[in-house]
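Appendix B. Raw example, untouched.
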Amino acid sequence: MYFNNIKGQEFAKKYMTNSLKKESINHAYMFEGIEGVGKETFANDLTKILLDVKNIENTPDCIRVKPDGNSIKIAQIRELQSDIIIKPHKKYKIYIIDKSEKMTVEAQNALLKTLEEPPEYAIIILIANNKESLLPTIRSRCEIIKFTPIPFIEIKKYLISEGVEENRANLLSSFSRGSMRRALELAESNDFYEMKEKVQSYIETIMNKNMVEILDIPSEMEKYKGESIVVLDMMINFFRDIMISKENIDKNMIINADKIVFIQNMSKKITYSQVAKIIDIIEDTKMKIKGNCNFNVSIQVMSLNIYEVIK
Protein backbone atom coordinates (compact mmCIF):
# COMPACT_ATOMS: atom_id res chain seq x y z
CA MET A 1 0.00 0.00 0.00
CA TYR A 2 1.11 3.56 -0.68
CA PHE A 3 1.97 6.07 2.08
CA ASN A 4 2.69 3.42 4.74
CA ASN A 5 4.93 5.77 6.72
CA ILE A 6 2.14 8.33 7.20
CA LYS A 7 0.43 8.14 10.61
CA GLY A 8 -3.34 8.60 10.50
CA GLN A 9 -4.78 10.42 7.46
CA GLU A 10 -6.74 7.37 6.30
CA PHE A 11 -8.99 9.43 4.02
CA ALA A 12 -6.07 11.14 2.27
CA LYS A 13 -4.25 7.82 1.83
CA LYS A 14 -7.31 5.99 0.48
CA TYR A 15 -8.31 8.84 -1.80
CA MET A 16 -4.88 9.31 -3.36
CA THR A 17 -4.24 5.57 -3.60
CA ASN A 18 -7.44 5.19 -5.61
CA SER A 19 -6.45 8.12 -7.82
CA LEU A 20 -3.06 6.52 -8.49
CA LYS A 21 -4.59 3.16 -9.32
CA LYS A 22 -7.05 4.79 -11.73
CA GLU A 23 -4.28 7.04 -13.09
CA SER A 24 -6.59 9.96 -12.38
CA ILE A 25 -4.17 12.63 -11.20
CA ASN A 26 -5.19 16.28 -10.91
CA HIS A 27 -3.01 19.17 -12.03
CA ALA A 28 -3.38 21.02 -8.71
CA TYR A 29 -3.78 19.84 -5.13
CA MET A 30 -3.99 21.64 -1.83
CA PHE A 31 -2.96 19.67 1.25
CA GLU A 32 -4.48 21.54 4.18
CA GLY A 33 -4.09 20.93 7.92
CA ILE A 34 -2.19 21.94 11.04
CA GLU A 35 1.60 21.71 11.24
CA GLY A 36 3.10 18.28 11.76
CA VAL A 37 0.28 16.00 10.58
CA GLY A 38 2.07 14.59 7.54
CA LYS A 39 1.26 17.00 4.69
CA GLU A 40 4.88 17.48 3.63
CA THR A 41 5.73 13.77 3.98
CA PHE A 42 2.61 12.88 1.97
CA ALA A 43 3.61 15.33 -0.79
CA ASN A 44 7.11 13.84 -0.84
CA ASP A 45 5.77 10.28 -1.06
CA LEU A 46 3.34 11.20 -3.83
CA THR A 47 6.18 12.83 -5.77
CA LYS A 48 8.40 9.75 -5.41
CA ILE A 49 5.58 7.54 -6.70
CA LEU A 50 4.76 9.76 -9.69
CA LEU A 51 8.39 10.36 -10.67
CA ASP A 52 9.43 6.79 -9.85
CA VAL A 53 12.43 7.94 -7.80
CA LYS A 54 13.69 7.16 -4.31
CA ASN A 55 15.15 10.60 -3.62
CA ILE A 56 13.27 13.64 -4.88
CA GLU A 57 16.22 15.90 -4.02
CA ASN A 58 18.17 14.40 -6.92
CA THR A 59 15.63 14.97 -9.67
CA PRO A 60 15.14 18.18 -11.67
CA ASP A 61 11.48 17.22 -12.11
CA CYS A 62 10.64 18.11 -8.50
CA ILE A 63 10.85 21.80 -7.68
CA ARG A 64 10.14 23.11 -4.19
CA VAL A 65 9.09 26.69 -3.50
CA LYS A 66 9.60 27.93 0.07
CA PRO A 67 9.04 31.31 1.73
CA ASP A 68 11.81 33.82 1.12
CA GLY A 69 11.87 35.47 4.54
CA ASN A 70 8.30 35.97 5.69
CA SER A 71 6.58 35.43 2.36
CA ILE A 72 6.58 33.74 -1.03
CA LYS A 73 7.09 36.56 -3.48
CA ILE A 74 5.90 37.13 -7.02
CA ALA A 75 9.48 36.73 -8.31
CA GLN A 76 9.50 33.13 -7.02
CA ILE A 77 6.25 32.36 -8.85
CA ARG A 78 7.64 34.00 -12.00
CA GLU A 79 10.63 31.66 -11.71
CA LEU A 80 8.25 28.70 -11.39
CA GLN A 81 6.43 29.87 -14.53
CA SER A 82 9.69 30.11 -16.46
CA ASP A 83 10.63 26.58 -15.39
CA ILE A 84 7.25 24.99 -15.98
CA ILE A 85 7.45 25.44 -19.74
CA ILE A 86 10.51 23.15 -19.80
CA LYS A 87 9.32 19.59 -20.38
CA PRO A 88 10.11 16.89 -17.79
CA HIS A 89 12.57 14.02 -18.24
CA LYS A 90 9.75 11.52 -17.70
CA LYS A 91 5.96 11.85 -17.47
CA TYR A 92 5.51 14.50 -14.78
CA LYS A 93 7.01 17.67 -13.42
CA ILE A 94 5.95 18.44 -9.84
CA TYR A 95 6.01 21.73 -7.96
CA ILE A 96 5.56 21.69 -4.17
CA ILE A 97 4.77 25.09 -2.65
CA ASP A 98 5.48 24.91 1.10
CA LYS A 99 3.51 27.20 3.44
CA SER A 100 1.54 28.37 0.43
CA GLU A 101 -0.60 30.67 2.59
CA LYS A 102 2.50 32.89 2.82
CA MET A 103 2.23 33.81 -0.86
CA THR A 104 1.66 37.51 -1.34
CA VAL A 105 -1.55 38.50 -3.12
CA GLU A 106 0.56 39.39 -6.17
CA ALA A 107 2.20 35.95 -6.08
CA GLN A 108 -1.20 34.25 -5.79
CA ASN A 109 -2.59 36.18 -8.72
CA ALA A 110 0.43 35.25 -10.79
CA LEU A 111 0.08 31.57 -9.85
CA LEU A 112 -3.59 31.70 -10.78
CA LYS A 113 -2.71 32.03 -14.45
CA THR A 114 -0.65 28.84 -14.28
CA LEU A 115 -3.37 26.98 -12.37
CA GLU A 116 -5.89 27.93 -15.05
CA GLU A 117 -3.86 26.50 -17.93
CA PRO A 118 -1.06 24.23 -16.68
CA PRO A 119 0.96 22.08 -19.07
CA GLU A 120 -0.42 18.53 -19.19
CA TYR A 121 2.67 17.16 -17.42
CA ALA A 122 2.64 19.67 -14.55
CA ILE A 123 1.36 18.95 -11.04
CA ILE A 124 1.29 21.73 -8.45
CA ILE A 125 0.91 20.83 -4.76
CA LEU A 126 0.12 23.65 -2.34
CA ILE A 127 0.82 22.82 1.30
CA ALA A 128 -1.23 25.04 3.61
CA ASN A 129 -1.95 25.27 7.31
CA ASN A 130 -5.13 27.22 6.61
CA LYS A 131 -6.74 27.34 3.17
CA GLU A 132 -8.79 30.40 4.17
CA SER A 133 -5.58 32.44 3.97
CA LEU A 134 -5.51 31.83 0.21
CA LEU A 135 -7.62 33.57 -2.41
CA PRO A 136 -10.94 31.84 -3.25
CA THR A 137 -9.86 31.74 -6.89
CA ILE A 138 -6.74 29.75 -5.91
CA ARG A 139 -8.76 27.36 -3.73
CA SER A 140 -11.36 26.78 -6.45
CA ARG A 141 -8.72 25.54 -8.88
CA CYS A 142 -7.19 23.02 -6.49
CA GLU A 143 -8.39 19.65 -5.33
CA ILE A 144 -8.38 20.16 -1.57
CA ILE A 145 -7.36 17.23 0.61
CA LYS A 146 -7.90 17.83 4.32
CA PHE A 147 -5.30 16.48 6.74
CA THR A 148 -6.85 16.02 10.17
CA PRO A 149 -5.13 16.05 13.60
CA ILE A 150 -3.58 12.65 14.33
CA PRO A 151 -5.53 10.70 17.00
CA PHE A 152 -4.05 10.73 20.51
CA ILE A 153 -3.63 6.95 20.55
CA GLU A 154 -1.72 6.95 17.23
CA ILE A 155 0.77 9.51 18.54
CA LYS A 156 1.14 7.66 21.83
CA LYS A 157 1.78 4.33 20.09
CA TYR A 158 4.38 5.88 17.82
CA LEU A 159 6.22 7.55 20.70
CA ILE A 160 6.30 4.27 22.64
CA SER A 161 7.61 2.48 19.54
CA GLU A 162 10.40 5.05 19.45
CA GLY A 163 11.40 4.18 23.01
CA VAL A 164 9.46 6.82 24.96
CA GLU A 165 8.26 5.54 28.33
CA GLU A 166 4.46 5.05 28.43
CA ASN A 167 3.57 7.68 31.03
CA ARG A 168 5.76 10.22 29.26
CA ALA A 169 4.25 9.27 25.90
CA ASN A 170 0.80 9.80 27.42
CA LEU A 171 1.76 13.29 28.58
CA LEU A 172 3.42 14.30 25.30
CA SER A 173 0.49 13.01 23.24
CA SER A 174 -1.97 15.06 25.27
CA PHE A 175 -0.06 18.25 24.46
CA SER A 176 0.65 17.44 20.82
CA ARG A 177 -2.67 18.89 19.63
CA GLY A 178 -2.79 16.11 17.09
CA SER A 179 0.61 17.00 15.59
CA MET A 180 3.25 14.27 15.45
CA ARG A 181 5.93 16.88 14.83
CA ARG A 182 4.94 18.79 17.94
CA ALA A 183 4.96 15.60 20.03
CA LEU A 184 8.50 14.80 18.86
CA GLU A 185 9.66 18.37 19.51
CA LEU A 186 8.22 18.26 23.03
CA ALA A 187 9.96 14.91 23.64
CA GLU A 188 13.29 16.61 23.01
CA SER A 189 12.46 19.83 24.88
CA ASN A 190 13.86 20.49 28.34
CA ASP A 191 11.70 23.62 28.51
CA PHE A 192 8.53 21.50 28.38
CA TYR A 193 9.37 19.66 31.59
CA GLU A 194 10.62 22.81 33.29
CA MET A 195 7.31 24.43 32.35
CA LYS A 196 5.41 21.53 33.85
CA GLU A 197 7.29 21.89 37.16
CA LYS A 198 6.49 25.61 37.18
CA VAL A 199 2.80 24.95 36.54
CA GLN A 200 2.75 22.58 39.51
CA SER A 201 4.30 25.31 41.66
CA TYR A 202 1.66 27.85 40.47
CA ILE A 203 -1.09 25.45 41.50
CA GLU A 204 0.53 24.85 44.88
CA THR A 205 0.84 28.61 45.42
CA ILE A 206 -2.86 29.17 44.74
CA MET A 207 -3.94 26.14 46.79
CA ASN A 208 -1.82 27.34 49.73
CA LYS A 209 -3.80 30.62 49.59
CA ASN A 210 -0.71 32.81 49.91
CA MET A 211 -2.01 36.08 48.48
CA VAL A 212 1.41 37.74 48.16
CA GLU A 213 2.75 34.84 46.10
CA ILE A 214 -0.47 34.58 44.10
CA LEU A 215 -0.05 38.19 42.97
CA ASP A 216 3.46 37.32 41.75
CA ILE A 217 2.22 34.54 39.43
CA PRO A 218 1.63 36.79 36.35
CA SER A 219 5.21 38.12 36.42
CA GLU A 220 6.58 34.58 36.90
CA MET A 221 4.50 33.30 33.99
CA GLU A 222 5.73 36.13 31.75
CA LYS A 223 8.63 33.86 30.75
CA TYR A 224 6.12 31.49 29.13
CA LYS A 225 4.00 34.17 27.47
CA GLY A 226 4.74 32.72 24.03
CA GLU A 227 3.52 29.31 25.23
CA SER A 228 0.68 30.63 27.38
CA ILE A 229 -1.91 28.24 25.91
CA VAL A 230 0.37 25.26 26.63
CA VAL A 231 0.81 26.46 30.23
CA LEU A 232 -2.95 26.83 30.69
CA ASP A 233 -3.56 23.41 29.11
CA MET A 234 -1.07 21.97 31.61
CA MET A 235 -3.03 23.55 34.45
CA ILE A 236 -6.28 22.14 33.09
CA ASN A 237 -4.76 18.68 32.83
CA PHE A 238 -3.55 18.82 36.42
CA PHE A 239 -7.06 19.73 37.63
CA ARG A 240 -8.65 17.06 35.44
CA ASP A 241 -6.24 14.55 36.97
CA ILE A 242 -7.35 15.77 40.41
CA MET A 243 -10.97 15.21 39.35
CA ILE A 244 -10.16 11.67 38.16
CA SER A 245 -8.38 10.97 41.43
CA LYS A 246 -11.41 12.12 43.42
CA GLU A 247 -13.78 10.00 41.35
CA ASN A 248 -11.68 6.83 41.71
CA ILE A 249 -11.77 6.39 37.92
CA ASP A 250 -9.17 4.21 36.18
CA LYS A 251 -5.84 5.73 37.20
CA ASN A 252 -4.46 4.94 33.74
CA MET A 253 -6.46 7.95 32.57
CA ILE A 254 -4.30 10.29 34.65
CA ILE A 255 -2.07 12.29 32.31
CA ASN A 256 0.44 13.45 34.94
CA ALA A 257 1.05 9.97 36.30
CA ASP A 258 4.53 10.98 37.45
CA LYS A 259 2.88 13.52 39.79
CA ILE A 260 0.41 11.10 41.34
CA VAL A 261 1.35 11.94 44.97
CA PHE A 262 0.86 15.67 44.31
CA ILE A 263 -2.46 14.99 42.56
CA GLN A 264 -3.74 12.80 45.39
CA ASN A 265 -2.75 15.39 47.99
CA MET A 266 -4.48 18.17 46.07
CA SER A 267 -7.61 16.05 45.64
CA LYS A 268 -7.99 15.98 49.44
CA LYS A 269 -8.01 19.79 49.63
CA ILE A 270 -10.67 20.53 47.06
CA THR A 271 -14.20 19.43 46.16
CA TYR A 272 -15.38 18.08 42.82
CA SER A 273 -17.51 21.19 42.32
CA GLN A 274 -14.53 23.47 42.97
CA VAL A 275 -12.39 21.59 40.44
CA ALA A 276 -15.10 21.99 37.79
CA LYS A 277 -15.32 25.74 38.44
CA ILE A 278 -11.53 26.10 38.27
CA ILE A 279 -11.35 24.33 34.92
CA ASP A 280 -14.04 26.70 33.59
CA ILE A 281 -12.01 29.69 34.84
CA ILE A 282 -8.86 28.48 33.07
CA GLU A 283 -10.77 27.73 29.85
CA ASP A 284 -12.21 31.25 29.96
CA THR A 285 -8.69 32.66 30.41
CA LYS A 286 -7.52 30.72 27.34
CA MET A 287 -10.30 32.31 25.30
CA LYS A 288 -9.33 35.80 26.51
CA ILE A 289 -5.65 35.31 25.67
CA LYS A 290 -6.53 33.90 22.25
CA GLY A 291 -8.63 37.05 21.81
CA ASN A 292 -5.53 39.17 22.50
CA CYS A 293 -6.54 40.33 25.96
CA ASN A 294 -3.67 41.60 28.12
CA PHE A 295 -1.64 38.58 29.24
CA ASN A 296 -0.66 39.78 32.74
CA VAL A 297 -4.15 41.03 33.55
CA SER A 298 -5.76 37.82 32.31
CA ILE A 299 -3.43 35.62 34.39
CA GLN A 300 -3.90 37.78 37.49
CA VAL A 301 -7.70 37.69 37.17
CA MET A 302 -7.55 33.92 36.65
CA SER A 303 -5.37 33.38 39.74
CA LEU A 304 -7.61 35.55 41.93
CA ASN A 305 -10.77 33.87 40.62
CA ILE A 306 -9.35 30.44 41.44
CA TYR A 307 -8.41 31.73 44.89
CA GLU A 308 -12.00 32.90 45.37
CA VAL A 309 -13.27 29.41 44.55
CA ILE A 310 -11.06 27.64 47.10
CA LYS A 311 -10.77 30.16 49.94
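End of appendix B.
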